[in-house]
Amino acid sequence: MSITGKFDVVVVGAGPAGSAAAYILAKAGFKVLVVERGRGAGSKELFGGKVYAQPLRDIWPDLDKSAPIHRWVTKERFSLVVGERVLTVEYSSPRPVGFTTYLPELAKWMADKAVEAGALLIDEVRVDEIVVKDGRVIGVRSGGDLVEADVVVDAEGVNRLLLEKLGLVERLDPKHIALGVKEVLRTGKGVIEEKLGLGKDEGMAWMVAGDITAGIPGGGFIYTMKDMISIGLVLHVGKAVEAAEKGLLREHVSLLLEKFRLHPYFKRIWGEADIMEYGGHLTIEGGLGLVPKKLAINGLVVVGDAAGLLLNTGYTVRGVDFAATSGRLAAEAIIEAFNNGGPSEENLRVYEDKLKSSFVWRELVRHRGIERVMSDPLFFTKLPRLLIGVMKRLYEADYEEPTILDAFIESTSEEDISLARLLFKLGSVVGKL
Amino acid sequence: MSQETLLTRPLKIEDLLQRNIYDVDEDPHIEIPRGSEQEGLPKEALVYLCPAGCYTRIGDEILFSYEGCVECGLCRIISPPDKIRWEYPKSGRGVQYRFT
Amino acid sequence: MRIVVGIKWVPNTQAVRFDPKTGTLIRQGVPAIVNPHDFPAVELALRLRDAYGGEVIAVSMAPPPAIQGLEHVIGMGVDRAVLLTDRVFAGADTLATSYVLYHGIRRIEKEIGKVDVAVFGQETIDSSTAHIGAQVASWLGWPYVYYVKNAKLDGDRLVVTRQLEDAVEEIAVELPAVISVAMRALKPRPVTLKNKMRAKVEKPIIVWSNKDLGLDPRCVGLKGSPTIVAKVTYLPEVPRKKLVYKPKDPKDAARWILKNLFLDEKTGPLLRKVLWGDSGA
Question: What is the value of pTM for the model shown?
Fold first, then answer.
């Protein structure tokens, strides 16, 4: 390979989407360059903790054998929290579909696969511009260096600096974006198994809603890694900015997370576990609000977070598998385009067709409108209070407990919502969850 | 830092950031204006929501320091575009995630 | 002009933490980096090459993962690199290290061509001895100038600007010479796409083991290191108040400092004693 020649494809970003595309293209014999801003692939990656396995197996059949899988998620929990009162639902299954991992490790594994297949990975280099000439994308520029390619795959992530410069997307609208903050806690060996009733390779994904987010729409998460636990909060950025500017949020976001770590119900699990890392990342709120109008133009395709492909339903999050799948579909479309006369806009838009007939798109459409649910105070503040109120009435009576119906009626009147309205609201969103 | 304090009170943001690995660039990759030029920035939101606590309020002004930045992009999307210059660090510098 | 620049592959000391229970270092997941104080040296070497032609060769004694660091400096524009790596080099103090680097430079002269300048950083972040430049110069028998801020050629001599505490000095030295560049003297250039591509594709890194250098194993690594670390004491963390004050004017600032430092119960007596030998009151 020479460094002066033109590449078939330049991929911007060695995350799950970029590396999936690079891997498939390189395997098909394409001359592929991947440019990554971090030091080695993975060093800038941050996510919650769980990955859906099957879509990744479709790309890397040896996933189960060689990927850095920490634990297979056999237990899912969902908790509502009001003060020190917690209502938890647990689902346990012998057939895990997802695993926990650290994204820096998994992203490095994916990038290594692309390099083994023949892609050239250049790290520590920031792409400054996607270059357009005569109405088509001709390559990328970094500082004073231009590298030409027939197709550019934009896998730059949620911060779409390049696509904005290109005029393909608007600035990110805070109402479609959530902020994730996260801590990695070192529990030591055996603690996770003992405290959460898990087997050696078994893991837990745990979503939490309630007043841990200080009234801001969002929630918390807990994921079990090998001998560490990841905990975090996700906050709706639009609403959080509003709350801060109105003076309703008077605590730093890291303090909210620290209070979650020190919550009496949860801290028993990790106890005095040391905090190994603290980080933050933007994420997509869900729905189709951030998908660019065009996912392919003349010489360019957009994949992963940059394409707005992420789903957060409140009880589960899908990002990595969507990203990798979009990378795979883009690569397949590029290969077809080359076989059909070249990467014209018309040929590359096959990627859009492929994506729109894939499970990724069906999932996003199915849960369309989830954003509105996720930012509705009824679900974030009132519903947890209502249900905790019901439980409190049922289980905290010294002599006489009410019937379940009475507990509901009392609790709804205390929270100032009518049961009928609540049922109606629930009915209207259940189809979006 | 003794284990007792880890369990008894929340850590300050500076102490949380100390757990991270950085290779700090000499040049700031983010810049905001000073003084009255800050008019229009969502100051409260920057102070309370920047996960790395890069924005501190001093009187009417906010001070910005980029060293602890985790490169999330929050300040960019909530600030008017003409009030912030935001890029990723060069040469692989900045935060170096190991776990997450 | 052929310029050799020394690179040390060091643990990112900022990232090394103590286990509060055992008092030992937690090295898990701590990445190594190019010694940050080497970057001004790389920058000066590149500027000399850009001005007078020739090539810059980075040289490092380190285990193989240091290739990542050598690729980084090639990404900045260094032409090629030599990695001196061998199990017998491990555990070296500065004497044994400079001995290997010296033979590395001699071998570069034999295999590639005459070296005009060897450039080093002022010191390293993991040991801060500032020995290596001086020791390599001694082994080579070349003149040595340190705290260098800048350099230019004047005929066949190198005119070197030194940054001293209270003065700037200009010295002309005969070549070949060894120089150490002062910390933060020059802003290093970034890694560029084309240079990093060259590092990865052309792999201009030569690896020499002790088979190539043929050094007496008693003179290298742990065996060749007379330095003894007698004791390591860890200083406890000092709780800081972390006060920030935005003064209205210099007078206001002075007043605030006076109140918070000089009249403070704890810091006041200490400061007065240090500054004026004042014993109290």
Answer: 0.93
